């Protein structure tokens, strides 16, 4: 396994995760590093971080690195002793990012390099680029309708197209406020750009939104895509037939940081992605209009979704439409109409995932087993046990892989020569864990309770086989007896630690670390009948006496409250009778003024009303004019209640203190 790091490419053995072969050393050029430091970048940033890997048809390795904010690319040829020798070096702008933490992606296929990154150090020129035999095709420069401040996540090729997954600021939503949506974009491999109108620009670039949301009258969206699995053949629903599988991809999503904290895993069928790109486009008549679906009759024929054999022959009408309509109207729906796994609240967030496609279980069904990495160094193993269209997720295992809780950044499943393991990476560590730990379950009940498609109970032991019996749907099986003992498995993990970073984002040097042991997070209620838990007779007597004393005290308190209430009522009635005569002889204006001062203007008290328009308050010792309308019926009037004679306006002014309202 070639693992890109800082100034190095580690050549690790997949069996032991140790460096048994020679690593590739690649430091930044000295004058590039000095110039990087002059631009006030840190010493850590001014290194060469390997960010792109590709394998050519002849077996040569194509690598690109940041090279102290001046990207460079090299071609290495493998030698007979398994070492690598540099063959050529070239400029890496548009292929590799400038900043080591800039999100980017690339795929090398059919002798062509397709990359999604930025073309400048300021990250103001994002692009999707194709390089083939010295020619270049890219997205339109500085056009927010094409790509708008994107974060590229992954890419893969299938057939005659290459697909890119990323998130970006949604230009179609800008009239309703800023929002970030997840996208899938596609280009044709043989796209050469237009002849004159769109020379060296994509004529096959289109994008669509990815819909990962909890359905309902008001769907709850997970808008920020974080990672995807490799393209594989699977089925998000368990099935009894191996043929019921299709090309698909799983993806990890998160909510916005200022929203409800949560993350989810959604599955997308390749057929649904193709169907979306075959549909209507979204556009706007002018910058002041809303984004609406473009009528079908305005779409060029043939539909632009089809790859052209010679893009130089496309007419101006078709090119004008393609240039101004890059967004599809419909979003790509999630398979099953809902996320496969979700996590909410204060728990960790999902960051990466890997999938073991269509594992055959002992219940004669096939399952996609999903391994999900978190931002606190854990790996969750999950399946959808639901039959038909029902999603019923099960978390089989929860393993703490990195003791320092370093976020999981990437995961791969290694399956070669009968050895299957999960490779887990962070910014400074790489670890391997087994895909299953069936043998550590010592009883039938605990083995079946795992609900793990890898495991079954056969010949009085828990084995990694599909020939025993298991109960994935319920976690129980009638052939299992009642067992009270439980064995909690310990984790078998091989870890290689890279040099500790000065920041949480820094990749580093390699050193070995002893395996770490962790167990499954499981809960078992075991009754405890020991003598220590049996209360003594003396303790029971003391509790009873305490209860009687407390009851007497409560009765006394109630009597005191009732007596004090009666005395307070009598005293209040006397005081009210004494003041009634004085108030009847007072000036009506004084009465209303007193009421206004003590009750109406709550801003003078610390008890501010719940809804207050603070922008209307004058804050610099100004005078606030309060107009109070007072209805006073003329003496001798026969107007009924609710009559509206001439009203007297009493103007009351109250100076407001100099206060700041938040």
List keywords for this structure.
five-stranded mixed sheet, WD40/YVTN_repeat-like_dom_sf, membrane, glycoprotein, 39 strands, disordered C terminus, transmembrane, 662 residues, ligand-binding face of the semaphorins, domain 2, single chain, five-stranded antiparallel sheet, 14% helix, alpha+beta
- The beta-strand count equals 39
In terms of DSSP E residues, the strand content is 25-35%
Give start-end ranges of low-pLDDT stretches: 484-491, 499-548, 580-662
Strand order of the largest sheet: 12-13-14-15-25
Structural class: alpha+beta
Number of helices: 6
- What is the overall pLDDT average? 79
Q: Biggest sheet, open or closed, and with what strands and sense?
A: 5 strands, mixed
Return Rg in Å: 35 Å
Percentage of residues assigned to helices:
10-25%
Report how far the terminal alpha carbons are from each other: 58 Å
Shape: globular
Give an overview in words:
It contains six helices and 39 strands. Among the domains are: 1-102, no CATH class; 440-524, ligand-binding face of the semaphorins, domain 2. The protein has 662 residues and is α+β, with helices and mostly antiparallel strands. The strands form eleven sheets. A five-stranded mixed beta sheet has the order 12-13-14-15-25. Strands 18, 19, 20, 21 and 26 form a five-stranded antiparallel beta sheet that branches.
